[in-house]
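Review session, final week

We close the course with one last complete record, chosen because it touches almost every idea we covered. It is Short-chain dehydrogenase/reductase SDR, a protein from mine drainage metagenome with 271 residues. Go through it on your own first, then we will talk.
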Amino acid sequence: MALVTGGGTGIGLGIARALAAEGYDLVLASRSVEHLEAGRRALEGSGARVESAPTDVRDPAQVERAIERTRAAYGRLDLLVNNAAGNFLAPAESISPNGWAAVVRIVLDGTFHCSRAAFPLLRVAPAPAIVNVVASYAWMAGPGTAHSAAAKAGVLALTRTLAVEWARYGIRVNAVAPGPVRTPGTDERLWLSEAIVERVRAGIPMGRFGTVPEVADAVVFLAGPRATYITGQVLAVDGGQWLGRGVLDRLDSSDAVATGARDRSAPSRSD
């Protein structure tokens, strides 16, 4: 069975839906009771048993209660998906101390609190795993993401550290790094205009935004039996965004002529 934080909406709900299709029973955790109820309704008919745990992952006591609720309901925990996040775009100089703390405490502190609290159940599971949801800008950087990028970079470091420390217990710890994905939540907080959407899309080699099911499938893979020798890794699901389009993608035919491109079938002077 799996516990998914931030599991009531958006990418978290998509992950929960994909896990249900793989036969997992679920606990959804979220600060919002409204989101939890919506998530439960969305998963009706999935065949999965779905419990909910109202949880602010910034509060270790609430996290402990969510884990205890999981133990009481199922007696086990096989997979923890740390997906809870808070984000907004802002230049670094305009991020208030409270704004900085809110994002870092949800993303980084919350991932630690949940992982630590889940450890006693995971260590006795037959094939335990943790999958952390980060973002490719954690290492590629981008304007307006100082707080979120710093927090998610911290989660990457935590992912690798726990992978090493907890390998002795058979606990695999990996991360998925989505690139741009459109959901109602990201449209409200990040993709505030079609002009922004188009500028972002133009920087993705595959030429489109990702989808929630594509991210969810990556989580299912890392959690499942086809990834049993993979730990401490991050899987970017971003259409190649972090690689960039490269200089050749910016050249048209006249640029190629100007830079001395020629028929490669002709011998060079050294041939």
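Two points worth writing down before the exam:
The chain has one domain: 2-243.
The chain is about 45% helix and 15% strand.
Good luck, everyone.
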